[in-house]
Amino acid sequence: MTAEQYLSARLRQALAEDPRTTELGVRVTVRGDHVLLSGDVASPERRAELEAVIHDVAPELTVLDDVKVVPSDAPVGREEIR
Amino acid sequence: MIRIAAVGDVHLGEDARGRMRPALDQLGDCADVLLLAGDLTRHGTVSEARVVADEFGGLPVPVIVVLGNHDHHDDKPDEVTAVLRDAGLTVLEGEATTIDVNGHTLGVAGVKGFGGGFAGKCGSAFGEPEMKAFIRHTTVIADSLGAALGSLDTDVKVALTHYAPVPDTLRGEPPEIYPFLGSYLLGEAIDANRTTLAVHGHAHFGNEHGMTPGGVRVRNVAQPVIRSAYTVYCVEPAVVEV
Fold first, then answer.
1. Is B36 helix (H, G, I), strand (E, B) or coil?
2. Is residue A30 part of a domain?
3. What sequence ranges are listed for the domain BON (chain A) (predicted)?
4. Within 10 Å of residue B186's Cβ, how many Cβ atoms?
5. Are strands A79-81 and B33-37 parallel, antiparallel or unpaired?
6. Residue A16: its chain B contacts at CB < 8 A?
7. How far is the C-alpha of A58 from the C-alpha of A35, rounded, in Å?
8. Is residue A75 included in any domain, yes or no?
């Protein structure tokens, strides 16, 4: 594993175990000085918390945030299971 | 026709209070029951369970729930269960419940489930105590799911779990973590008991549609997968053979 992979693993573990985030559904990709976050969270506040935890562990990285707040609208249509 | 609404992995907390409610207000028009496939909270605290109880309490249809791994994180699953039951939700763990829908019966058997992996690529109850405990937890839960499904004599039978019973609905997740996402033992219990539909959550990067080796439809309803407050499946009760 390269240093980038170890760092990526540490950041993912921090997002999963830090009580501010406890997110197991966010992908972490480190490329040089940048870290890309992607996936879904349940509220806008939680996007900001992800960046705060990443910054605590690796303040030298620039965060690129592709995380979305998961839609909570009523569904369109339905599925008939035959 | 029985209309089954379902969602999992809503991960509610104080910051997300009320987000589901506008969509849930329309639920009575489009569904006969709502299934919640675990991970209702972030940390499994009693205060988060109260947010869940407020969000899903008082709906016009029965709400049937299993807990997920997040709902166990604070080591208070009994307290979380009590808060949800006080709000009128039916919480299942190795149990089954039956409701009547327009003259037909719907039975739902529920367990949290656990990991272990899928046939040919799974752990065994062998070696260190930690490994044996891991697999035995799955075995005990799968056995209780089988018994709960077997206890049902209804027109439609649904298995509700948090962890996945098949790998089909995990596509999109890294294959290396499949053993932490589900177990074939859950699928085997589903196949052994003439189940109509299996609903689970847990795999945020998975996909919605799958099938057990025995031909039972499986649906991953994790909210990041279905990308709405819930989704609705319509099931025709089996025609009685004369």
1. strand
2. yes
3. 3-71
4. 28
5. unpaired
6. none
7. 10
8. no
The per-residue pLDDT for range B48-57, each reduced to its tens digit, is: 999 999 999 9
CATH assignment at residue A56? 3.30.1340.30
Q: Flag if A24 and B19 touch (Cβ within 8 Å).
A: no
Q: State whether the Cα torsion B99-B228-B179-A22 is positive or negative.
A: negative
Closest partner CB to B43 (pick from A19, A72, A81): A19
Using a cut of 0.90, tell me whether the model's pTM lies above it. yes
User: For residue B89, how many C-alpha atoms fall within 13 Å in the half-sphere facing its CB?
Assistant: 28
Half-sphere exposure of residue B75: CA atoms within 13 angstroms, side-chain side: 0
Position B144 confidence tier, pLDDT thresholds 50, 70, 90 = very high
What average pLDDT does the segment B21-47 reach? 96
Q: What is the pLDDT along chain A (82 residues), one digit of tens a residue?
A: 578 899 999 999 999 999 999 999 999 999 999 999 999 999 999 999 999 999 999 999 999 999 999 999 999 989 999 8
> What are A54's two structure tokens?
């990443």
Question: Which amino acid, A80?
Answer: E
**DSSP-derived secondary structure for B114-132:** ---EETTEE--S-SSHHHH
Q: Which domain holds residue A10?
A: 3-69
In chain A, what residues touch B20 (CB-CB under 8 Å)? Answer: 72
Structure tokens at B56: 């899903």
Distances in whole angstroms, Cα of residue A77 to Cα of each of A80, B34, B81, B156: 10, 16, 32, 22
Instruction: Among B99-108, B144-153, B233-242, name the one with the lowest average pLDDT.
Output: B233-242
**For chain A, how many structural domains are there in total?**
1
Instruction: State whether A74 and B26 contact (CB < 8 Å).
Output: yes
Q: Is residue A78 one of the residues assigned to a domain?
A: no
